[in-house]
From TrEMBL:
Residues 1-17 form the signal peptide. Residues 357-450 form the Putative collagen-binding domain. This is Glycoside hydrolase family 140 protein. Keywords: Hydrolase, Signal. The lineage of its organism: Bacteria, Pseudomonadati, Bacteroidota, Cytophagia, Cytophagales. GO terms for molecular function: hydrolase activity. It comes from the Bacteria. It comes from Imperialibacter roseus.
Amino acid sequence: MRLLILLFLSLSIQAYGQLKQLPLKVSDNHRFLVYSDGSPFFYLGDTAWELFHRLNHDDAEYYLQKRKEQGYTVIQAVVLAEIDGLNTPNGQGNKPLIDNDPTKPNEAYFKDVDWVIQKAAEKGLFIGLLPTWGDKLFKSTWGMGPEIFNEKNAAIYGEYIGKRYKDQWNIIWILGGDRNPRNESDIAVWNAMAEGVAKGVGGYDKGLMTYHPQPHQNGGSSTWFHREPWLDFNMHQTGHCYENNRHEKITWDYNLTPTKPTLDGEPLYEEHPLCFNLKEHGVSNADNVRKLAYWQVFAGAAGHTYGCHAVWQMYDEGREPVNSPQHTWKESLELTGGRQMGYVRKLMESRPMLERIPDQSMVLGENDPMEGYYISANRSSKGTFAFVYTPFGRVLNLNTTSLKGASLNVSWFNPRTGEMTTAVKMEKQPEMAFMPPSKGEGMDWVLVLDAVG
């Protein structure tokens, strides 16, 4: 068994070092993202919103290398950043705009952005590039602004930044930035910026684009932009309270027409004050963020984004903290949950990823997500394998009729360590019960069923 575990981990680590340098597109079945050659891509993102703004080159390279080693594939970062990104210079001493005018970009600042994007490309990482944080359109009750965008200059700025990076293979365009449109005027501004980006890169098919919203009742970006030609895949922000039904947001998008990939671009951050109330609720932990990842991916998401409260703001000594970060950003790169996100990708890439479909009909018995014990099932559309996630190591009572063959190879994947147990062959029955290796709080497991032959 030890040999199989080491082999599994070794192959996964090798895969991290062999990331392709090809642009992305939507898969033929419109459920996933793939490289331009059609091979599967798992979106494993990190919210490094202040990367361009707060880190100098040495720190930026340190950050990128660490996340590459941990298996991340996408780094989400903002050009016009949230924390006074227009008036406080970046790590090299440059501001992004002249006179805070979106039609007058500062070349020195954008060369710094170029440097980070190129460094990410060298490491095989995609940049989820936000042209601006949403507070530059409207501040609402939070955000520093200033509010500088209108429909006309948004189009000009979008075209500028699109043209600047039109030949850069590792860009995923993310509009929005923590804002839901309030009205038709806001929608028009975001559409204008999106059209500008599309024009700059040379057409809708030349740039992969989405929208990062605030939490919303049902859909995320799909609420306002699902049918827009520039929106290639949907994105959610599900917020910073711990709730057990966040996968329902993915299901909402999964069932929309036309079919588009969907994922959570900002779930609960690790070590974030729960519901912004540190005194009463404390901070989130690795178990919290891990459960959300598996629930959402198994619900049909094309990937998942992790976030750490200290990392998004690149908190360090001497900087004013936002909402009580527990460590510096460098210390937080080693947090347990952040390292465990790479195991999600390992598991997804261990089987034909483009065949994955959610299938809750496999789960028998009571399964109320609000109780926190929700069991989530994901299987091959061809009936060759299934993944079933149990957050507390509960016995799994399953309907296995969707799987082929007369017998199954049964193994268990440990989301906390990335280890896979040796498979045991079992005769397949229409209904079967499976006991995880351990149970209790924090003892989550993924049952892996492979149809023999």
